Amino acid sequence: MAPSFFNTLSGKIEEFRPLQDNEVRMYACGPTVYDYGHIGNFRTFVFVDILRRYLKQHYKLRHVINITDVDDKIIRNAGQAGVPIGEYTKKYTQAFLEDSAALNIEEPQIVRATDHIQLMAEFIKKLVDNGHAYRTDDGSYYFRISTFPQYGKLSKKDFSGMEDGARVDVDEYEKDSARDFALWKAPKPGEASWDTVIGPGRPGWHIECSTMSMKYLGDSFDIHCGGEDLIFPHHENEIAQSESLTGKQFAHFWMHARFLLVEGEKMSKSLGNFYTVRDLVLMGHKPSSIRFLLTSVPFRKQLNFTFDGLTQAANSVERLRTFALRLQKAQLPEGKSASMQQLADATVQGIESALADDLNTAQALAAVFDMVRDANAAADAGQLKQGDVEPLQKALQKFDAIFAVLHDDDAVKVKRIIEWAESEGKQDKISEQARAIAASASVGDAEIEKLIAELQEARRAKNFARADAIRGELNQQGIIVEITRDGVRWRRK
Ligand code: AMP
Ligand code: ZN
Predict the structure, then answer these.
(1) Would you say the CB of residue 32 lies under 6 angstroms from ligand 1?
(2) The overall pTM is greater than 0.85
(3) Are 147 and 43 in the same domain?
(4) Model confidence over 211-235: pLDDT tens digits?
(5) In what order do the strands lie in the sheet with 23-28?
(6) Is 29 close to ligand 1, i.e. is its CB under 6 Å away?
């Protein structure tokens, strides 16, 4: 069954089919590496990861993201810090990769703007040659939007009345100031600049993505995505540049994640509701909870990030992990039951059809939690059989191949972020809760299992003092021990 996705370009939900064979070519705008990424950025990156993982289950995938490592903000910040831009962006590029890994975001092919400057200059030269761009006296280049009558087709804005030749040279601007935009900026004292076929200077932000996406994916490719703020001017400008150059349709599907709100408001430093992934982890929240929360609302719906929501997300992940553990460890009667097989099949189908429906992650999650509830009830009633375990586990795997929250490696990830905070002199930001989560980072599962076996042995021998001592020791190491009717169970804090 072909999936359907909302395409910003057509304004409709459309059936998706790759342009060529069974291969999807997808470009997602990556970070501008001038600071640590915030959870709004990561809403978009997690959405792209869900899309990636879904597509991979059905097609071959060529997926490219860019790192914008030269733009207005980078030049401003590096200048203030008194370091070359390359040095400045290296730190934040690394941070982006680390935060992505912490959130189990798979790594696509990553390309950097500063590795493609000559290609960008050649692109601009061709636009000048075919009349779509012009040079100004200072050596900057602008795209002449009056030469592209379809300008506005993505953002659905009518720009027909605008003044021809009025210019804007900043990378980001509002809709009402749509004017000829900068492709190339002449050198300014103290700013990074490159010598190229069109003279010295540096590229504007928009030409970076057009150049790199077309280099790696071709003139026309399947999907281009990012956050909704990129629709205008960034993606509108990419379309204008690329289609003016090739005369072909650039990306066929445009998919945009709705902006994340925090406690009902736009995230901003002045409101004090601005969080990076690292901030939340140091406050004592697990990367898996953050990922779960970001995935729980379909990408086009408003996601309001709240601390209550984050706690609920943590509980949901715990519920799933406990269920996975129960399937693995429970002593069950032989045989299998038709109802559990059906439940597993229905769940796999439920996840698939939810995701094929414009990536409805909320509905996919509902299917999984229904399964967990029903299978737990069956287990409680003694009706879950050994032969039911495999199909239920398969359904969980189907879910986790997309959502990626079952494997418990939060402790190691939190420990790394604590070490980073210590190295940056941010000790005061590290909560007790974060330290408790990180405590089990250096204890392996085998070591824990050995202590659990000893604990069980002590309980059998009615040596409760010893059993309590082991439990206390495990607790110190960040392990919670629970005595249940299925036996002794443990999990990391
Ligand atoms: P930037 O590093 O500013 O270029 O942004 C990287 C990505 O994060 C882009 O796709 C943006 O659209 C996206 N983004 C920025 N803020 C938010 C937000 N509050 N919610 C969702 N996505 C966002
Ligand atoms: Zn871009």
Answers:
(1) yes
(2) yes
(3) yes
(4) 999 999 999 999 999 999 999 999 9
(5) 109-112, 60-67, 23-28, 221-227, 251-257
(6) yes
